[in-house]
Design goal:
6-stranded antiparallel sheet; alpha+beta; 294 residues
Length: 294
């Protein structure tokens, strides 16, 4: 990573301590000759004067991004254009933090180590989702292309949906379920896990298919190769579905006949990892893996 002269902020402004943390970190950076960049939208929400800079401009100008929040804050940041070009240091000031590097107590030691070059960069796989065709597009909606760091969810909240899934153009399995989650390894500890999906090490390249409340015991979670192309078609001509990208960061309503294609994206997210970071420790502590086993 090049010399850090400007640090951009992405902040969970709903946290009670967020304003004080941003002010203190900004002062700390300025004392070291580093320019802090705070998007105007977040500055106003934190009670600061307008900064005159957008999130996109922050990404364009920053040498490093500092995410202050939890996994949700990082997921929201990941949908900013061109963010894949900038390394991200994520500090957990919320509750869950599988994607974040360190806790709030470790903020300044982690910043010091990062500025000194004592870190590694972890590239996290993303998914690209494309609607191949949608014969009857509802008013106000358009066929779309989006990118997901965690998952793409296909579901309908009021009734069962019937889907056919293909892997590399070969028919794989029919789903009669409340929905289907297509996730990255990063997303394996999210919605997929709550639906009995497998936890997958984040450095692997894989695509998870996890059904939501399947109406058959023969339908199981599956892990496909990371280079596979997943195609999902609605079986019933009358059906419509909703597609959610990384939670509700992007939502789309699709009409009957739409074909949804999901594959590994060419872009990745760069996460800064300090020497003390341990994914396995995070799993043990946050999911209490192995508790009670002797």
């Amino acid at each position: 990573m090049k010399e850090i002269k400007k640090v951009g902020f992405f902040v969970n402004t709903t946290k009670a301590n967020a304003s004080g943390i941003v002010k203190a970190v900004s002062t700390w950076l300025k004392e070291r000759g580093i320019i802090p960049l705070l998007p105007e939208e977040q500055a106003i929400e934190l009670g600061y004067p307008p900064t005159g800079i957008s999130k996109t401009e922050v990404v364009d100008q920053a040498d490093m991004l500092l995410v202050l929040g939890g996994d949700g804050t990082l997921l929201s940041a990941a949908h900013t254009p061109q963010i894949e070009n900038v390394p991200i240091l994520a500090i957990n000031i919320g509750t869950l933090g599988f994607l974040t590097d360190a806790s709030l107590e470790q903020l300044y030691p982690t910043l010091k180590a990062t500025l000194a070059g004592d870190y590694r960069v972890e590239h996290r796989m993303m998914l690209e989702v494309v609607v191949d065709k949608q014969p009857q597009v509802e008013q106000g909606t358009q066929p779309f292309r989006a990118f997901a760091l965690n998952d793409v969810v296909i579901r309908h909240y009021t009734h069962l949906i019937e889907l056919d899934a293909y892997i590399d153009d070969e028919f794989f399995i029919p789903y009669n379920a409340d929905g289907l989650i297509i996730a990255t390894p990063s997303g394996s500890t999210g919605y997929s896990l709550s639906c009995a999906g497998t936890i997958v090490a984040p450095q692997l390249e894989a695509i998870l298919l996890t059904p939501i409340a399947p109406h058959s015991l023969t339908v199981r979670p599956f892990i496909a190769d990371g280079n596979a192309e997943i195609t999902v078609k609605m079986r019933a001509a009358y059906q419509s579905v909703d597609v959610f990208v990384d939670g509700q960061r992007e939502t789309h309503s699709l009409t009957a006949g739409a074909v949804i294609k999901v594959e590994r994206a060419k872009r990745t997210i760069q996460l800064i990892r300090s020497q003390h970071h341990s994914y396995y420790r995070a799993l043990r502590e946050k999911l209490m893996l192995g508790i009670g086993v002797s």
